[in-house]
Amino acid sequence: MSPFFTIITSTYNAAATLPRLLDSLASQTCRDFNWIVQDGASSDATMQIVEQYRNHLPEILADSSKDSGIYDAWNKAIDCWQDKIGEWILFLGADDTLLSHDTLATVKEKIITLKKHVILAAGNAIVVDDFGNIINKNIIEDKKSRFFQKNFKMPICHSSLFTRKDIILKYKFDESFKIVGDHDFLIKVWKHCDQLETVNILVTKMGFGGISSDSNYKKLFIKEELKICIKTKSFRGFIFAFDSMIYKYKISAKKYITKTKIGSAFWRVLQKLHSRILPK
Description:
CATH architecture of the largest domain: Alpha-Beta Complex
Distance between the termini: 44 Å
Order of helices and strands: EHEHEHEEHEEHEHHEHHHH
Strand content: 15-25%
Oligomer: single chain
Number of domains: 2
Structural class: alpha/beta
CATH superfamily of the largest domain: Spore Coat Polysaccharide Biosynthesis Protein SpsA, Chain A
CATH topology of the largest domain: Spore Coat Polysaccharide Biosynthesis Protein SpsA, Chain A
Low-confidence stretches: none
Shape: globular
Largest sheet: 9 strands, mixed
């Protein structure tokens, strides 16, 4: 019999952070879950650490083989263990942790009675630095505004988003994306606002420094967000991607754009779009 929750993690040389995640899973009062780890053929002690926790988690399903990225790894895990996957799936990174020992118990109590049309259950998340200081919060106060945002920015942290098994099996992830495949997935599956329910608790503590926040991947991030904009035909999406180039990544564009009168006028328009069209 499959459990209520399945937690899926892709890893690659994650020995430094993985114990924190596994400790948070081992401490859960709700034991109605299994953990799937899809490792990318790590050369460090990642898989040895996994084996050390077999007696501390209800069930560990593990595989280690080369992959082409996080979404390839997630799809491999889904394909390999689909008969073992629980009713609700949560994707956690190797540097994420569940916030409290009763997190899964509280979430289960909130979502076990949800009607079948609800395919997503979203919790809140915080992002912390290496010293445990909170540097960002993702608190969902209004799901309608998040639904509106989904065509031009990722509205919910995937590491605090629970998804029904049948939706995961049907859609899975587009492996052509390396950074924003979770955003693409959410657009595909979240068609109506009432398909998502909020659970109104802090679910996940995320480590800062993932690929989406790595300056080395900023061009790829913008390219992939633009690809989503083209798919969704989102004007605001194009503005958001352009906005990311200038504000989020501080690409020095102003001195080039404002060399002409037309460019200066365009810059003023962009400033207005930044403050009025894009959500804060």
